[in-house]
Design goal:
- It comes from Mycena metata.
- Helices cover 33% and strands 18% of the residues.
- About 2% of the residues have low confidence.
- It is α/β, with parallel strands linked by helices.
- Strands 1-2-3-4-5-6-8-11-13-14-15-16-17-18 form a 14-stranded parallel β-sheet.
- It has a domain of 184 residues: Leucine-rich repeat, LRR (right-handed beta-alpha superhelix), CATH 3.80.10.
- Helix 5 packs parallel to helix 6 and helix 6 runs parallel beside helix 7.
- It contains 14 helices and 18 strands.
- The protein is elongated, with a radius of gyration of 32 Å.
Length: 489
């Protein structure tokens, strides 16, 4: 085999080096061309977009369109959009992004949602902090709302401290935390001395600890958060452990919702006595204990609407006895859920009664019929069909049926067997000169009536309207309350 000379090896090495250099230059040129191509495509896309009719709209109108679309987004739930509309809009095009970022009202709803699988990510807190900061910056000087929906041991103090720096424009706060080993202390530390002059709505739910809760003493009804002041606060919901540990100022509150916590009667009385402007009160599976036998009813001079949810699975609680604790001379609306008993008591000013999951016996129903002489609107579900039969029967010397002033009925989840009861009652009340004028039906009830060929007859007899069986509370709230859990099973 012939010997390869050093000169030949040197020459091929030089050739390889020259080719590699040429390749590097070509790749660099290709990258430059690719960059220029991307820029040209982007420019072409922007120019093409500008020919689209929507881009001919004034920015102000496009901004209003964004606001309208955002307002029509679904309520958060299993089928809701995972990416908020404002984020989607800002990623469509450079112009859309410019309009979105230039519309502060698009960024006034701050949602912090964390699920256990997200806690495995190393930078989940950094991501949440960055998003919250972006919303705070982009919302400018607008009032904003914040919502925390957290399952698992997620630290909320840093985010709350970040938001608290903008407390002057904080409008609504919602916190829902399940399995919160340290959340109570973190929330208290972030909010206990804060002043929130624009805050109108506070809703806090913390799941109970495994060891259970304690009963509040008479001195525990002082504010524990927002002690710097919340002069605009009108709506308060405190549930679970939050009722015992994170109570906001209540003196100016008009709507109060208490849920899922054992409360002594003394604390309950102290709390309500300190809310002179209370208009709406909601009690969800509350256990008011240790009421003295000689106690006088709690006077609620302005209370207009009362909701009470019992617990049919707990025989130790007697929710129907809660009415003995109140004196509400101008009460107009009463909602009862999961009741199986009704005390002998009068509600002379109530004109709207709603029953949900109340399987009253015959005796309970007769007591209820006597209790509401001024009733004009009655709402019920499938749990009490026999009441329909009673509403069509004449009683007493007058020959009038019960609730002679009744003109509006709402029915949900009607069963096929109850169609005849409903139609007969409507016919009988017409013949007794106490006719119903308006009937609300949910989808299931309309389907059942249609299958029985009675829906068309009803529509010819009185005004029939649709509703979903869920009643907003209070009716004049004016915004979506995504934490409403009163109707949940």
């Amino acid at each position: 085999m012939s010997q390869i000379s050093d000169l030949e090896l040197h020459r091929t090495a030089k050739a390889i080096e020259a080719l590699e250099l040429k390749k590097s230059q070509l790749l660099r040129e290709a990258n430059e061309v690719e960059t220029e191509l991307c820029y040209a495509r982007a420019k072409h896309g922007r120019l093409a977009n500008q020919n689209s009719p929507i881009y001919r709209l004034p920015i102000e109108i496009l901004s209003d369109i964004f606001m309208e679309v955002q307002s029509r987004q679904q309520i958060p739930g299993p089928k809701a959009m995972h990416v908020p509309f404002e984020i989607l809009a800002s990623h469509v095009s450079s112009m859309f992004r410019e309009v979105a970022l230039g519309t502060p009202l698009l960024w006034t709803t701050i949602l912090v949602k964390v699920r256990p699988r997200q806690l495995l990510a190393r930078k989940v807190l950094e991501w949440k902090l960055a998003r919250v900061q972006a919303y705070l910056d982009r919302s400018g000087s607008c009032l904003f709302t914040s919502s925390f929906d957290i399952v698992g041991p997620f630290q909320v103090d840093q985010i709350l401290n970040l938001i608290s720096a903008h407390a002057a424009r904080w409008l609504r706060l919602s916190i829902s935390i399940k399995n919160p080993p340290a959340a109570t202390l973190e929330i208290w530390q972030a909010l206990h001395s804060l002043c929130a002059p624009a805050m109108e709505h506070v809703s806090i739910w913390l799941s109970k600890l495994a060891m259970g809760g304690h009963h509040l003493s008479d001195t525990d009804c002082t504010p524990l958060i927002f002690r710097g002041g919340a002069p605009s606060l009108k709506f308060v919901r405190v549930s679970g452990m939050a009722l015992g540990c994170l109570q906001p100022p209540l003196a100016l509150v008009e709507t109060l919702h208490l849920s899922g916590y054992p409360l002594s009667y003394a604390s309950f009385q102290t709390m309500l006595d300190g809310i002179p402007n209370l208009l709406n009160l909601s009690l969800h599976r509350m256990n008011i204990i240790n009421r003295p036998t000689d106690s006088t009813p709690i006077f609620l001079p302005r209370l207009r609407a009362l909701r009470v949810c019992g617990n049919l699975e707990d025989e130790t609680t007697l929710p129907h006895r809660i009415f003995r604790t109140f004196s509400a001379p101008v009460l107009e609306s009463l909602v009862l859920k999961d009741f199986d008993a009704f005390d002998e008591q009068m509600f002379p000013t109530v004109h709207t009664l709603t029953l949900h999951g109340c399987p009253f016996s015959a005796g309970e129903m007769f007591r209820m019929l006597r209790a509401f002489p001024a009733l004009t609107t009655f709402r019920l579900d499938e749990s009490l069909p026999d009441i329909l039969d009673l509403l069509g029967m004449p009683e007493g010397p007058s020959g009038k049926p019960p609730w002679s002033k009744l003109h509006t009925l709402a029915v949900t989840d009607m069963e096929s067997a109850d169609v005849g009861l409903l139609c007969d009652m409507i016919t009988h009340r017409q013949s007794l000169a106490t006719p119903l004028v308006r009937l609300f039906l949910d989808r299931r009830s309309r389907v059942v009536l249609r299958k029985k060929d009675r829906l068309e007859w009803l529509q010819k007899t009185l005004q029939v309207d649709r509703h979903d069986g869920i009643y907003s509370w209070p009716p004049d709230l004016g915004y979506e309350d995504n934490d409403e859990g009163f109707w949940d099973s």
